[in-house]
Amino acid sequence: MSDEHRHDGLTLLKKGETSYPASPGEAKLETFENANRQRNYWITFQTSEFTSLCPITGQPDFATILIEYIPEALCVESKSLKLYLFSFRQTGTFYEEIVNRIYSDLSATLKPRRLVVNGNFTARGGITSSVKIDSSEA
After folding, report:
1. What is residue 86's DSSP assignment?
2. Which of 61, 75, 105, 134 is catalytic?
3. Is 75 annotated as catalytic?
4. Coil, strand or helix: which one is 92?
5. Which CATH number fits domain 38-134: 3.30.70.2860, 3.90.1150.10, 3.30.1130.10, 3.20.20.150?
6. Which among 94, 138, 97, 95 has a CA at the least distance from the CA of 116?
């Protein structure tokens, strides 16, 4: 694809227009071409503002989500990733399911050389939880 059109597929970066998806299934992970496929380099995203809901009590759960990957052909656009992560806000699901869903969706979309997704969830009932998936170990 020519440099002139390599970002044509990015639709979520429009100024002043933000539509928040209601669920991960409605969210769209947008990508752009990796211009440096000749080398391995890490891309890291981290948010300490991740929220979801406990599927049993409906109480909010809070986490820091860390995503690290070495791209192959595609890179994820950060605003689309932010909106995707935001889409879990009203989703009732367990920690393990959240991290596995993020991993599966990113892996299917990007097909990266390496992917690590780590969710560090705040204490509930006096215990913290951390879920980590590393493609080198999966």
Report:
1. H
2. 61
3. no
4. strand
5. 3.30.1130.10
6. 138
Tokens, residue 131: 């879920």
Any idea where the domains of the chain sit in the sequence? 38-134
Catalytic residue, chosen from 3, 54, 75, 134, is 54
Residues 102, 107, 108: CA angle, nearest 5 degrees: 105
* 54 carries an active-site annotation: yes
Q: What is the pLDDT of residues 54-67, one digit of tens each?
A: 999 999 999 999 99
Residue 50: closest CA among 116, 121, 109, 105? 121
Q: Which residue intervals of the chain are DSSP H helices?
A: 78-86, 95-110
Given this model, what pLDDT does residue 37 score?
Answer: 96
Rg of the chain, C-alpha, whole Å:
16
Q: Could you read off the pLDDT of 91-133 as tens digits, one per residue?
A: 999 999 999 999 999 999 999 999 999 999 999 888 999 999 9
- According to DSSP, the β-strands at 60-70 and 114-124 are antiparallel
